[in-house]
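Q: Could you fold this chain for me?
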Amino acid sequence: MQWLPTALVALGLAKAQAAYGTVVVNAAFIAMALPLSVFLPKVDPRKLLLGMFAEHPVKYLSTDSVGTSLEFM
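A: Sure. Below is the predicted structure, expressed as structure tokens.
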């Protein structure tokens, strides 16, 4: 994650704020990873992957139907 402070400074933050932003991002990752590490072993990997693959076309079609394009991706 060494690119993050550079990107934050390029967006106009001071170097001290950019360093703090990196800490916040890492803390958020840890806060989400710990509960996920307890939950994921209980999930069937096949169902999880099938759900993820099925979710993408549904999201794409639902955003396309309201006239929103995904050109930003």
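A (continued): DSSP finds three helices and no strands in the chain.
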